[in-house]
TrEMBL record:
Transmembrane segments: none annotated. PANTHER family: [HISTONE H3]-TRIMETHYL-L-LYSINE(9) DEMETHYLASE, LYSINE-SPECIFIC DEMETHYLASE. Residues 401-421 are annotated as: Disordered. This is Lysine-specific demethylase 4A. It comes from Frankliniella fusca.
């Protein structure tokens, strides 16, 4: 029995997404499997792991998660303001405000859902029948237009929400998402034989503090058109997401090497300056919802689109940007992990200073255990000066003429009046010199 999947188990679709058919025993030594993925995926920023039918135990997992989720939804706490008992968990009520009249770019605002909306969400999220129904309009679009048409459809829903907000007499339809549901910390749910996201046995186990969502998996209850904005993981970590049951998830991905450039672009968007001024805009705030085609059209930044069906693990690599939509009611669980190669990247990850409650991972114990060569750098706080070729560096898509396309923050994109190779995939704006410190595009 091979420790890792063979070559026949690895396929690549026309969107560039690699899918690996895995068996339960392949995941038994997860750190070794991660090292195999690093080599096999040849630097790709994410991969889909499709668990074989004979190893799936989704019905058992679904039953366990549903029972624990009901406990969370029923839990009440005392509200000091209203001096009454209120439900502790509130789903995200998602509203996306357009920031450009010409592009699918939105700022995500989380608003308070009404008691009636919460009641309806909880009823549907805890009903078994919700996860077996595939009558969402997303499926018809997918059948007729494929994943690209589906992406356009999902952004079209946000455009419709924007248009409704412009009419004072028309109520904005709510999109509810059960994100970040923390179940019982001590309960290790096995997704397949001897494999649990609560016990991945990676270098993150050496962290001095255990955070929800990192060391302890979160559960996510999706609804049709609910979304997750563009972001990387805390401390630039890997992520692993398992779709337990229900509708697929539509994922967009951008390679780590373009994180610095996308971060600069998003910091220039017409969204709340309280967010754009933070170094961790694409880490902790998670407010930018944008069609990845915008980044490609603007500067040639490549992206991939993929569907995650029930029984699929989606793995994203350090500093890989990702966003997406749920196509209907689904139930998923996710956690973060790291490896020794991640540590050298993670110590330079942006940190949010706006909110003291955000995750600030202390690397000291992790470095001592697996990368002692980095301890002096970390202790001397020289981590503000990230090394060359780190994802934080602003790099442009490579040109086919042999120019590697690298440009630092001080350099500018050439205008059409300047000599630029026609073969270069980078995009420029007509007649305008763009300096990355001060974008002004709208």
């Amino acid at each position: 029995m091979s420790m890792f999947p063979d070559d026949e188990a690895i396929t690549t679709d026309n969107q560039g997404l690699i899918t690996v058919l895995v068996r339960a025993h392949h995941l038994s030594d997860f750190p070794a499997f991660v090292a195999w993925m690093r080599t096999t995926l040849n630097g790709r920023h994410r991969g889909l792991l499709r668990l074989s039918e004979e190893d799936r135990q989704d019905d058992e997992v679904f039953k366990t998660v549903m029972s624990l989720m009901k406990v969370v939804f029923d839990r009440k706490v005392h509200d000091k303001v209203t001096k009454s008992e209120v439900f502790e968990y509130q789903p995200d009520c998602q509203v996306a405000f357009a920031t450009s009249p010409d592009h699918d770019i939105f700022q995500y605002i989380r608003v308070q859902c009404s008691p009636e909306e919460r009641e309806k969400f909880v009823a549907e999220a805890t009903s078994n029948s919700s996860y077996g129904c595939r009558d969402s309009c997303c499926y018809q679009v997918l059948k007729e237009s494929g994943v690209t048409g589906l992406a356009n459809h999902c952004f079209g829903v946000l455009r419709a929400q924007r248009d409704a907000s412009l009419k004072n007499d028309e109520k904005i339809s709510s999109i509810l998402y059960g994100a970040g549901i923390q179940l019982h910390r001590g309960r290790k749910i096995k997704l397949c034989r001897d494999f649990s996201l609560s016990n991945l046995k990676t270098v993150l186990d050496h962290a001095s503090e255990k955070y929800d969502g990192l060391a302890y998996p979160y559960v996510y209850s999706g609804t049709a058109h609910s979304f997750f904005p563009w972001h990387i993981e805390d401390a630039g970590l890997y992520s692993i997401n398992y779709n337990i049951k229900g509708a697929p998830k539509l994922w967009f991905g951008i390679e780590p090497q373009y994180f610095g450039l996308v971060d600069k672009i998003c910091s220039s968007l017409h969204i709340d300056k309280g967010y754009t001024s933070c170094r961790a805009l694409l880490v902790d705030h998670k407010v930018v919802v944008a069609n990845p085609k915008y980044f490609f059209d603007l500067l040639g930044i490549p992206y991939t689109i993929g569907l995650q069906e029930p029984g699929d693990f989606m793995v994203t690599f350090p500093f890989a940007l990702h966003a997406g939509f749920n196509l209907g009611h689904n139930l998923a669980t996710a956690a973060n992990f790291g490896d020794p190669e991640w540590v050298e990247l993670g110590i330079y990850a942006p940190i949010c200073l706006c909110n003291p409650e955000e995750i600030h991972l202390d690397f000291t114990n992790i470095i001592r255990k697996c990368r002692p060569d980095l301890l002096n750098i970390y202790n001397n706080k020289t981590i503000l000066m990230f090394p060359k070729s780190h994802p934080m560096e602003v790099l442009y898509p490579a040109c086919s003429d042999g120019n590697d396309g690298k440009q630092t923050t001080e350099q500018k994109v050439q205008t059409e009046e300047e000599a630029q190779p026609a073969s270069c995939s980078s995009r420029v704006l007509s007649g305008r010199s763009l300096k990355l410190e001060s974008f002004d595009w709208f």
